[in-house]
Design brief:
Blueprint (H helix, E strand, L loop, with lengths): L11 H33 L18 H8 L4 H22 L4 H26 L9 E5 L1 H12 L7 H18 L12 H6 L3 E4 L5 E5 L3 H20 L1 H25 L13 H4 L9 H19 L3 H6 L1 H7 L2 H19 L6 H26 L5 H4 L3
Parallel strand pairs: 1-3
Antiparallel strand pairs: 2-3
Helix pairs in contact: 1-3, 1-11, 1-13, 1-14, 1-15, 3-5, 3-8, 3-11, 4-5, 5-8, 6-8, 8-9, 9-11, 14-15
């Protein structure tokens, strides 16, 4: 198992909940920001078209519009990173309970398959509620990549953290180098490439989008592997792991500043201007090296910050922990909720200043639902099934 501690092994089960607090709080924060991003779609109808490796890049005409989108950039990288952390912690705790490696891998294979099925059979239908229509038969979104990365990542869980960091670095740089030139932007006829490596669309002769990929698997797998390495550190020495996290976060941000300033390698496409908004708006689809460094650097600092909370400050972020411990339930529920709120309250869209209160209203509705779900998930009769959700 990953960097298995020796003298501390007996204390792992008793301290697992404590070690999960900071990752759960961070996951809860990015879930709240994800809800903001999707409220922007369903309520305000003002979501940007996306930050792709080619095609038209979004232009923001005011600071609020940019910041509303910018703060949500930390969501997807955070989800993949924290899934890796969670996989490492889950595998180690189950190993202490006597699970074999084969049983742990089977668990992740089934859970990853469940996530893929939910994405293709349920969530893709919920996206049909998007204002103006969806018009995509198969959408390779974040849940698809998470499920596939869980399946692939389970085969690497047994590597030491040092090796996992090496694999993550190879995936980060390798997929960055393989990103196509922006001049090649257009419909693709290679669905394998769209699923594994290159965002874009498969469009038939009638102009119908048969498949659209925002989250090809391999560019995001590196963040999962990186998370597994951090999870290995957490099992050995949590305080040391969090100390390393903030130091790595600063290194990532400093490296982002240099690479982004040079505007060449690691950016996929050049900045549109020298404005600060363009400097902080790297390519997300696929995640450029600068995008990964920026978002992961901030997420690592936030992870360390949550680990430092004590007393009333720790109590104050408990709502985030509640959201963070019901991520899949929140994801499916919030899409339907914000689509409904948008239909009822702002059928023609709204300003961002109107959207923000509706976003908060949605969170107030979702909080007791997540509490209820966590209680239900603990019931013995449903635990064997809900453990995969």
């Amino acid at each position: 198992m990953i960097d298995k501690p020796e003298s501390q092994t007996h204390s792992v089960p008793n301290k697992l909940a404590e070690r999960l607090f900071a990752p759960d709080a961070l996951r809860g924060l990015i879930i709240v920001l994800m809800a903001l991003d999707h409220a922007n779609i369903f309520v305000a109808h003002k979501h940007s078209s996306g930050e792709y490796w080619g095609g038209a890049f979004p232009v923001y005409y005011d600071t609020l519009a940019f910041l509303t989108r910018f703060v949500t950039h930390f969501c997807a990288p955070g989800f993949f990173f924290l899934m890796g952390v969670g996989m490492a912690l889950f595998a180690f705790s189950r190993q202490q309970d006597g699970w074999t490696r084969g049983r742990i891998i089977r668990h992740f294979l089934v859970r990853g398959g469940v996530i893929l099925a939910i994405k293709l059979l349920v969530v893709n239908q919920l996206w049909q509620l998007t204002p103006g229509g969806w018009g995509i038969r198969i959408y390779i979104g974040v849940l698809f990549a998470l499920g596939a990365c869980m399946i692939l990542g389970s085969l690497l869980l047994w590597l030491k953290s040092s090796y996992l960091f090496g694999v993550a670095l190879i995936l980060l740089v390798g997929t960055g180098l393989l990103a196509p030139d922006p001049s090649q932007w257009g419909p693709s006829m290679n669905w394998v490439k769209l699923v594994l490596l290159e965002p874009g669309g498969l469009i038939n002769s009638s102009g119908e989008t048969l498949l659209w990929s925002n989250y090809p698997v391999l560019p995001w797998l590196g963040l999962v592997v990186f998370g597994m390495a951090i999870g290995g550190w957490l099992m050995v020495n949590p305080s040391q792991a969090y100390s390393r996290a903030w130091k790595l976060g600063l290194v990532f941000l400093a490296t982002f500043m240099v690479i982004r300033y040079l505007d060449g390698f690691g950016n996929i496409r050049a900045r549109m201007s020298n404005e600060w908004t363009d400097f902080l708006n790297p390519v997300k689809y696929p995640p450029s090296i600068t995008f990964t460094l920026l978002t992961s650097g901030v997420n690592l600092l936030l992870l360390w910050l949550f680990s430092r909370l004590r007393g009333w400050t720790k109590w104050a972020v408990q709502p985030l922990v509640v959201f963070g411990r019901a991520p899949l339930f929140f994801y499916m529920t919030h899409l339907l909720l914000y689509a409904g709120l948008g239909y009822l309250l702002t059928p023609n869209g709204s300003s961002l200043l109107v959207m923000y209160p509706v976003w908060l209203l949605g969170l107030l509705i979702l909080y007791p639902l997540c509490v209820w779900y966590r209680n239900i998930k603990g019931w013995k009769p449903v635990r064997p099934v809900l453990q995969y959700f």
